[in-house]
Every structure is written in structure tokens, then in C-alpha cells.
């Protein structure tokens, strides 16, 4: 039984995440053997090398002066990436051997120019931007992260979606040999997520390839992950291999697992509590006092109009 276990890194989940939250998130993994096949990984598993990204342009996407960047070690050492285990330090410990080159991304569905693109060809035509965003997990903790990425809009336009493309569906790599938790958990792998097309082309939405000016560490979703900063972190699907333009609302992993608790939109909303805990405040990793959670995670000015006329308690 794993409940109450202290993670090897010494961070007890209960210190940061409400107990009900982490117990719940573990619940779906029960019966999957906590250590999964992770113990079988070679000793060299945690060999994430740090590598600077060239040509990164700083932008004026900043947060308030009273919010400082979350430390690199926390951003890269306190993660959810259930393919590598479900403790917060499992992804860092176990994702080191994920092979992120060669890597291809298949783009299909309602687009004029479908194709399977090498990750470097996908990235190359674009300017890499550094953007400092708030990052709010549904578990009521948050960070401030200097992501490096490309506006998703610029990538979307290259494939020329047709008028039937109402949503964009994303898919993570499915490879149980590299992602050991895919061998046993009760999640219906691969992890999938989606955005409405207007959310996807909103200027805030980023396809992330790095953080802190460096190549994205595997545990943060290398080589390509989504960041939509006004939504709870689980929308930020990692290690993407598929982007499909579809007409119908696509399935999403957490919604499939617990539809009453995790909606498709997942907009950060302090007024809509999770059925089992409040979303009114959050614990910023590295701080002691709790902060009030902001509507749309502080990005209301940029995104509120996307939801005009929608009941946000209904469309959570
Ligand atoms: N993507 C995949 N493929 N698998 C996951 O388990 N976890 C999600 C999201 N993306 C997850 C994922 C959740 S619950 C959160 S909060 C964020 O990744 C965490 O991202 P971070 O490691 O950059 O903080």
C-alpha cells in the first residue's frame, strides 16, 4: 500500500497537495503496483543532460512583480507525468532514458496539408520565444515557469486546417518499453488532450520545447508539450506525437477517468470548486502563504471573450 509513503526526494505529497487530492489521484493507479516496472529500469535512467537552446527571444509575457520564478529544481523535480510513475519525483527519476530524437509528429484530420514531420523540421522555421507563465495544477499548487516555445497558432497555420476543424486533439507517445507505467495502469493509454480551435490559435497557447533557456527536460514533456496557461495543468499534454484536427469534441484522459471531476475546458476558475476540494486558493511551490487563485489563472483579459455566453460552472 502506497498511501502515506514519503517520496524518495523527501517531499511528502501531503505537505503540498491536499490529502484528498493526492489520495484520489493515486486511487486510479491502485492495483498497478506502485513501483510499476520502474525498478527494472537501468541505473543510468536519470541522465537528463542540460543543454542551452540557441536563438531564444525574450518576450514581454511576464507575471506580476510579486511573483518570482519557481526554482529550476522544483520545475523539473516536482512533476506529474504518470507514464513514469505517480509520485512527484518519479518523472525526474525515471524519464531520463526517453529517446526524444529521432521523433516525429503526425498531423492529420481536417487539414489541407497533413503529414508526419520530424520534430526538428517542425521547430526550425519558427522563432523560439521565452514566456514566463503561471502554471496552476488542478491539485491546487502552482508555479511560475519561463517556458520556451512556439505559438501553437503558427504551427497550426502551416497545416492549413479546413472549416471542418473545430477542435485539435493531441496524443502522447505510446511506448510501454520507454514509458513503463503504460504497461500496467488503468489509464487507457496513450494520454490524450484537446482544445477548441479558437483556444488552440489564441496567442497565449504555446508548443513548448524548453524551459529556463534550455532544452525541455524529459520529465517536463520533451521534446514537445502543450501549455495553455489559463487552464489547469492537465491540459498541458506532454511528449506529443499526434496532432489531429477534428470536427467533434475529442476525448481527454482525465475526463475519461473521472468525468464529474475533470471537464473538457478545465479553465482555472476559483469559483468552481473541484467536487472534493476548493479551488479558491493555491500553494505556490517555494512559498508558504497561500495565494488567491485568479480567474483564468490571471489571463482573463486575453481569454475571457472565448467563453462569452457559456456557463462556466457547467462547462468546467
Ligand atoms: N501529459 C502526459 N502525457 N502525462 C501526464 O501524466 N500530466 C498532466 C500534464 N501533462 C501528464 C501530462 C498534469 S496532471 C500536469 S499538472 C502537468 O502535465 C504537469 O506538468 P509539469 O510537469 O510541467 O509541471
How would you describe what is shown here?
The chain is of the alpha+beta class. The protein has a single domain (13-307), classed as Alpha-Beta Complex (Sulfite Oxidase, Chain A, domain 2), CATH 3.90.420.10. Helix content is 16%, strand content 22%. It has nine helices and 13 strands. It has helices at residues 13-16, 19-27, 72-77, 90-94, 119-123, 152-159, 197-200, 253-257, 300-303, and strands spanning 56-58, 104-109, 115-118, 128-136, 141-151, 167-172, 192-196, 206-211, 214-215, 225-227, 240-246, 281-284, 290-292. Strands 1, 4, 5, 8, 9, 10, 12 and 13 form an eight-stranded mixed sheet that branches. A five-stranded mixed sheet has the order 3-2-11-6-7. A hairpin with a 5-residue loop joins strand 2 and strand 3. The longest helix is centred in the N-terminal third of the chain and has 9 residues, at 19-27. The chain is globular. The model is unreliable at 1-16 and 30-46 (pLDDT under 50). Ligand MTE is lined by residues 79-83, 137, 172, 191, 220, 233-234, 236-239.
